[in-house]
Amino acid sequence: QSTLLGRLQDAILSLQDPEPGALERAADDRSLEVHVCHSLTRELEVLQDQLLALFANALKPQDVLVVTPKLDDAAPLIDAVFGTAPPQRRIPYAITGQPQRRVNPVARAVDALIAVTAGRHPASEVFDLLLQEPVAARYGLGAADLEPLRAWIEAAGIRWALEADERGDFGVPPTEHHTFADGLQRLYLGYALGDAQVSVDGRIGAGHAEGQSAAALGIFWRFVDDLRRLRRDWRRPKDAPAWRESLLQALERFVEDAPRWTEEYRAVRKAIADLQDHMVRGGLKHAVPLDVVQSALGELLDASARGGVPSGKVTFAAISSLRNLPYRIVCAIGLDDGVFPTAERALEFDLMALAPQRGDRQRRTDERNVFLDLLLAARERLYLSYTGRSVRDNSPRPPSVLVAELLDYAVRACSADAETAKAVRESLVIEHPLQPFSPDYFVASADARRRSFHAEYCDALREKLRAPETPPPQPLGEDDEQTADPGRPFFTAPLEAPEAEWRLVRLEQLQRFVANPCRFLLRNRLGIALPEREEELLDDEPFLPDFPSRQAMAERLLGPALEGANEADLLALASAGNEFPAGALGDAALASEIRLLRAFAGGLRDDLASGPAAVHAAELQFALDGEPWRLQGSVAELRAGRLVRSRYDDTRPVDYLAGWIDHLFACATLGPCSTRWHSRDGVYTLPPYADAHARLAELLAAYREGLRAPLRFFPKSGWAYVASGGQIAKAQNRWRNWKTPRFGESHDPAYRIALRGVADPLDAQFVELASRVLGPLHAHLEDPRL
After folding, report:
1. Model pTM?
2. Residue 725: which region, alpha, beta or left (left: phi > 0; alpha: psi -120 to 50)?
3. What span, in angstroms and rounded, lies between the C-alpha atoms of 761 and 711?
């Protein structure tokens, strides 16, 4: 054969190594190539472009085999690169030989069912099992039913264990606290009693299911009851026939046997039958526990993953499968050092490794043979790639020792001196840039072996070349000094002035704005809503009370506390909930919290009893740079010339600001009045304020400015600056929180986005705004805690 690959295959066939320089390689010979990338994802992106180039020359997808040592790791990346390509770049492909527990939904559901039953039934895993499509279909649950179920599990305080005796199996007190049994009782109480805070048998209702959604609650009870029966059955060891019968019953009970899953269902039933057959043929005479069955059945379900089958498309397979079948193009990706051949150490109990003898199987030798088979299977081209550059610092990384040896062999066969060897190696090894949009892929003068078919990147680069050169954007603010390069600014220029409809401001809008001006700007003017990350279901009961628990309990008990309930009644009602941990530590924390709640309710009750409550609504007019602005709002809980406000939590800067804005509005529209704000840790008072209208005008001016550009007003850092008498170091510590950065105010996503590109947000504008907005508040505030 005339190609380098063909001559190498001939040398293997004849078992004769060519002399140095004996092989001549044509300039256009691409039968053997090694591509060096920065990650496995980049390897797949490069492979996609290389295959598109080959398909342009009459190659068919079924002529290509792609193998990798770690198919499980590569499979999602393959789908991400090849499965999301637009129609003009779409390549038909199939991933073969994957484990059944990954690609077979029925096998995945059965595996999850066994894992949950063998464990301690954590809330997250039980809910994940119910999310499995065959399981949800078996119980008749749709997507609309599963969403409230998750909320009910969280509201009922379900953490782990189906019932009390399961907790005892794990060496903890066999109580029903935070079990599914306790949670279901609370959910049914909530369904029966609604929002009524009534203790029944030491429990209060939760979830408050109503209407048609309550039907899902009944299904959830049946699902948990089936799990309870299954656990009791599978706790007992069984022999082979008993395990087969029990597994098939569980499959029928929990998984829907629908026509769309006929083959998947059949594969799982066959694996269960094979499990019994292996037990019988192995001479098993004693009963075995569930953990043994779990391991054995998992291996049988994945047994088919050891091989692959040609798919008629571009076939992706594990490197150990299909290696002897001839393909026109054979591609091997992910050939990194230590990955192939594997560098796994022998197990401690491996007797063959402890006492090796001649004739023993050696894994690394087997994998060398696999690589040799792949080399021989390629009819026209052998394509190899590995991660040869660090994605962080571009430092070189070695390839698999097999790739290195093949390269050394080919270079020696094609060159007789060092200079020629260097040129041959450079022609065989192709280095790729870090990013797929690098100009190297699209410039006509670049290496012809590096070509991209990504038209969108090409158009973007073409537009960039056409655009005139502009200086790099600077952060907003004339007085800013950029001492570092924190990234491309998000705001390069202020937005246009707000339209006329923005000049009517509601009081609650102003309060939301001062609480976080950047979030208000992103959400209200740009339509950028920052979704909060949905917390995962908790699998462990609380050992210390947290903020959500205190708030939930206070919300339940504040009404009875304001009505004058004594400490014993409040403690009994609190114990009926599950917000606080059980045990002596939880009881002590609960008693302490009840005392704080009673003190809070007592002071609030005295202020609420000072006179009948009234609601006051009004509108104020302002002129800001010649523009008419209006502030509308209403204040409630006006009692005998005093505004009463409360929030059961420690007082925070946003509480001072919220009370201050309500106080200014009341003083500007009603005349002299005072405000008392009740918090968990005390009370602050705002006496009558004469210049309320002027202060509100300043706040509206800041609001107007903050609708155009990120305002350097940060309540927590600004309060630290004002309360410390103007010490910027205090504000910087509150902004960054050097000890725990994730608790710093700068960690807020809205600030991180809106202020991107700003080197130091705590600049002169911050000092001026903090002094202008918070200075009068701090000077007028009466708070013994300060």
Report:
1. 0.76
2. left
3. 9
- What is the rounded distance in angstroms from the CA atom of residue 637 to the CA atom of residue 538? 38
Which residues make Cβ contacts (< 8 Å) with residue 121, sequence separation at least 6? Answer: 160, 161, 162, 166, 180, 227, 231
Q: Are 340 and 402 in contact (CB under 8 A)?
A: yes
| Strands 614-624, 504-506: pairing kind | unpaired
Which residue has 């919220």 as its token pair? 658
What is the tens place of the pLDDT at every residue in 582-597? 778 888 888 888 999 9
Please, is 352 exposed, middle or buried when counting C-beta atoms within 10 Å of its C-beta (0-12, 13-18, 19+)?
Answer: exposed
Both tokens assigned to 135: 């399981």
Structure token pair of residue 426: 């450079």
pLDDT grade, residue 316 (50/70/90)?
very high
Angle (nearest 5°) at CA 263 between 259 and 266: 105
Query: In Å, what is the CA distance from 90 to each residue of 41, 81, 85, 161, 333?
Result: 17, 10, 5, 48, 20
pLDDT of amino acid 308: 66
What would the pLDDT profile of 660-694 be if each residue is shown by its tens digit?
999 999 999 998 999 999 999 899 999 999 999 99
CA 92 from chain center: how many Å? Answer: 30
| End-to-end Cα spacing for the chain | 90
User: Which tokens go with 222?
Assistant: 């049946």
Phi, psi dihedrals of residue 141, rounded to the nearest 5° = -105, 135
- 16-61 tens-digit pLDDT: 888 888 888 888 899 999 999 999 999 999 999 999 999 988 889 9
One DSSP character per residue, 107-118 reads HHHHHHHHHHHH
